[in-house]
Design goal:
By secondary structure, the protein is an alpha+beta fold. The chain has 21 helices and 24 strands. About 4% of the residues have low confidence.
């Protein structure tokens, strides 16, 4: 049996930092050779995945020619999205097998993946040699020429001359970007040289598990975007995120041009308590124990560096660190410890806003909920204090009541989903019994899951903040709250639109009987589709806000409908439930009008609208100028690109654990105050 979850697929999301989560074998830093071929274990895993897809996926579709063609297309897109490395002749060769991969999969044969990937490594090496030459040549930045930046408009080069021309423009563009950032001459050349050589090294360090995960996920995502194979290390990452706990030093890392950079220190972790390791520091070497040999990790895959640093609590890891802004290195011995991932759990703040008739301020409690987390292992073992979203939010609501809070804002803007059980239980804190979600399986059978507990943890006014990043379990919660007329939905026009439910099937348990099956990873497979109590699916359509606030996320191609092979919207029959009277159409209309009036006079929202217009203008461009004068004139667009990316990073993974009061939160608080006043007037009448 697997554990049911409903989580946004973030494989191409915005999270740049990788926490110390995994524990896998480390590939030698000197590895620089072709992957030799599939293993016997690869065959076992492949056969298990194909079998589960046929009998377990919602569509029960065979692995056939259609899935074969989708697999090839997805695999090539994963490896070479901008069509910079492969030749068209490579693609023509691969396409000869486009309708044969399904037969290979049914035999457990993934040798084709090795053929494609080893060709990819060969092309990378050829391009790196080409790049070295292009970096040394003199470029004419006065010429009016353009580079294609739209991946759909790009095509594979036909030969070496065409590839060289593509890369000439690419390097010219890279040099212009460096100059716009204040770096030019040999310094810019050296940085780009290192960037592309480092990328080549990391690709050559790809191991069997990673290639198998890429290839099988290219197959599974041809069924829908959320069915994918997880290697053992990826599965462990997933489980740690759900239980919000791991052992390590408590830091987040990212790879920048081959260097491992500390992007964040986790509050309360071992590194935080030690105090020496800081954000922006470079980790250039890692050793085990107080006297273990320090291994050079420059140009090493980030996942391998993470694996070396992570370990059992109480053990020592030695870090060779180049502190930010310094030229020398230092050695830090840090004792690993248990880390609570507080940034991913529910947190709260009470704002005092406006004035009541008696002169005292209204108190508005805000709960920021980044995910619907649950310690699945703890729940399965029935541990008394396993980590749970509903438990944490119930505790916060109890505190709100004790503080005399007048209204609650549930912020789900960066919540990509999680446990289906937690979504149902959390909804039950706000409604007094009744259906929360309906689920349809592959046989077309529909059943509903109800909140069975009488009473509520909060029976006052409720506002739910959402964005296009709010997905799956978030949409179950928001959809039920809206159907019950229990609270206002405020934010982007619609949520993400993920209306499918996945189950995690651990392949070791599928293939072997016994208490300690081998770690073979897992298939996260779509087995059901969920629907609101009203009968509407959230699939593709999402939950439509009662009050829409302009934001950049609304216009990004990050919704379910933007993903390849997403399932369609549909409906089932409504189930009986008793709506509340918290949300009335007349009040919603008045709230929209008052919000629009405020936003028209808000400089912040005017800037948001300008950024949206600039983004949409850039989004429609398929090329970019390589004329320096024109390029630099577009510097404002470059700066706004960075601002947009920073805003998205902050929304998905905020650097500060505190709930931020910005123009957006101010408007949410103002809407809540209007809501309280209008409800009071409605009750009086």
């Amino acid at each position: 049996m697997g554990s049911t979850n409903c989580t946004l697929n973030r494989r191409a999301g915005f999270r740049l930092a990788v926490l110390f989560l995994v524990s896998v074998g480390v590939l030698s830093h000197s590895a620089w050779a072709e992957l030799r071929g599939p293993t016997a274990q690869d065959r076992q895993i492949t056969l298990a995945v194909v079998s589960l897809l046929k009998r377990g996926h919602l569509t029960r579709h065979e692995v056939d020619d259609e899935k074969s063609e989708r697999c090839l297309k997805g695999f090539l897109k994963t490896l070479d999205p901008m069509k910079l490395y492969f030749y068209q002749s490579d693609i023509d060769d691969f396409n000869q097998s486009a309708t044969e991969l399904d037969d290979q999969f049914r035999r457990g044969d993934i040798s084709f993946a090795y053929k494609v990937f080893n060709t990819f490594l060969q092309r990378i090496d050829e391009r790196v040699a080409m790049i070295d030459e292009l970096l040394q040549m003199k470029h004419d930045f006065t010429v009016d020429e353009e580079m294609v930046i739209d991946r759909d408009a790009a095509r594979y080069p036909r030969d070496g001359a065409e590839a060289r021309e593509r890369w000439r423009k690419r390097i010219k563009y890279d040099l212009l970007v460096q100059k716009a950032d204040g770096l030019e001459g040999q310094e810019a050349i050296d940085k780009l040289h290192r960037r592309y050589h480092s990328f080549a090294r990391r690709m050559h360090q790809t191991d069997h598990d990673e290639l198998l995960e890429m290839y099988l996920t290219a197959l599974t995502s041809g069924y829908d975007p959320h069915t994918n194979y997880m290697s053992p290390s990826t599965l462990e990452n997933f489980e740690i995120q759900m239980r919000l706990q791991l052992d390590g030093i408590g830091a987040a890392l990212q790879s920048v041009d081959g260097y491992t950079i500390v992007s964040k220190i986790i509050p309360g972790g071992a590194a935080d308590k030690d105090g020496r390791l800081k954000p922006e520091d470079q980790i250039v070497g890692v050793g085990q124990g107080t006297d273990g040999e320090i291994v050079d990790v420059v140009d090493m895959k980030l996942s391998d560096v993470v694996a070396m640093i992570r370990g059992k609590r109480g053990t020592v890891v030695r870090l060779k660190v180049k502190p930010a802004g310094e030229t020398g290195t230092k050695i830090y011995n840090i004792t690993r410890a248990k880390i609570e991932l507080k940034d991913s759990e529910a947190r709260a703040h009470v704002f005092e806003e406006g004035r009541k008739p008696d002169g005292t301020p209204f108190k508005i409690g805000v709960i920021d909920l980044p995910s619907f987390y649950m310690d699945m292992t703890g729940a399965r073992l029935r541990l008394p204090n396993y980590k749970s979203t509903t438990r944490d939010v119930r505790r916060i609501l109890d505190e709100f009541r004790n503080k005399g809070v007048d209204a609650v804002i549930m912020d789900l803007r960066r919540n990509g989903g999680g446990s289906l059980t937690e979504a149902i239980n959390l909804t039950g804190l706000f409604i007094d019994r009744g259906p929360v979600v309906q689920v349809k399986d592959a046989d077309g059978e529909v059943q509903h899951y109800d909140d069975l507990d009488r009473g509520t943890a909060w029976d006052g006014p409720l506002l739910v903040l959402v964005s296009k990043l709010s997905a799956s379990a978030s949409e179950i919660f928001a959809g039920a709250i809206q159907d019950y007329r229990r609270g206002l939905i405020v934010g982007d026009r619609t949520t993400h639109g993920k209306g499918t439910v996945q189950t995690l099937r651990e392949l070791g348990r599928e293939l072997f009987i016994g208490p300690n099956p081998p770690q073979l990873g897992a298939l996260k497979i779509t087995m059901q589709k969920f629907y609101r109590p009203s009968g509407d699916s959230t699939q593709n359509r999402g939950v439509v806000s009662d009050i829409e606030l302009p934001s950049l996320t609304e216009h990004l191609d990050i919704g379910e409908s933007d993903l390849d092979y997403a399932m369609e919207f549909d409906r089932v029959k409504r189930v009986p439930f008793r709506p509340e009277n918290y949300v009335q159409p007349k009040i919603v209309h008045q709230l929209n009008m008052l919000s629009r009036q405020r936003r028209q006079n808000s400089e912040d929202f005017k800037k948001v609208q300008q950024r949206i217009e600039r983004y949409l203008e850039r989004k429609n461009k398929k090329t970019i100028t390589l004329n320096e004068e024109k390029f630099m004139a577009q510097r404002e667009a470059l700066d706004s690109d960075k601002d947009d990316q920073e805003e998205l990073r902050e929304l998905v993974d905020p650097a500060d654990s505190a709930i931020k009061r910005d123009y957006y939160m101010n408007e949410a608080l103002a809407i809540t105050l209007d809501y309280l006043r209008l409800m009071s007037v409605a009750k009086a009448n």
